[in-house]
Design a protein that fits this description.
This protein is 68% helix and 0% strand. By secondary structure, it is mainly α.
Length: 219
Amino acid sequence: MSRPGRPRKDEQDSRREQLLEQAVRLFGEYGYGGLSLETIAREAQVSLRTIYSQFGGKAGLFSAAIRRYSDFFVAALPVDRVNTATLDAILVEFAREYLYRLTRPELISLRSQFMAEAHRFPELAQEFYSQGPERTLKHLARFFQIQQKQGVIADNHPDFLAGQFVNALRGERFQRLQLGLDSSPTRQEVDRWAIDVVRLFLHGCLTPGAKPKAQSASE
C-alpha cells in the first residue's frame, strides 16, 4: 500500500511526462543557454528539488526530453513484427509516427534553437545526437539488418540504409518547416508524405522493366 499523500506510480509517470512536455516547449522557446531551471519549475508547476532528484539538473532534463521523443520512434518500429506485416506497412507506420512528431511546432523550435547553440555546448550536442537521432538510426539499422538476413532487402550496409531512409523522410519540406516557410502538416498530409517516401525508398522511381540510357562521356 502506498503511503498517504504520496502520488501513485501512474500519477508520478503522468507528472514526469507533463514535465518533459513542458521542457521541450521551453527549450524550444528560450534555447538551452537562455532557460533557467526556475523558469522550468514555475511553468511546469514542480519544485526545483523534483527536477534535481529526477534528472540531476538542466542537462539531465534536456537529455531525458530528447530521449522521450526517440522512445516514440523506436516503439513505432518493433523488430519483433518482421513476420507479422509487410515491409511497406511496417515502414509506413514508423514513417507516420516519425514525421508527425518531428514536424510539431515545439520540436521544430527545439531543434532550431539547439542547432544554433550546439557550438556553445559541444557535450550537450553529443548528448542530443546520441539520445535522439543516433538512437533512432541504430534501431532502424537493426531492423534493416533483420530484413537483409531474411533476403527481403539488398545487401547494402544497414547503417547506410537507415541514414538514407531518415534523410528521405525529412526531405525538403522539413527544411522549409525549420525555416518557418511552411506550416506543420496535418495527419492526412503526413500519411501521404510517409507513403510516398516509403514507396520511393523501397521501389525506386523507374517504371517496371525500364532501362535508363547510359550517358556518354561526350554528353
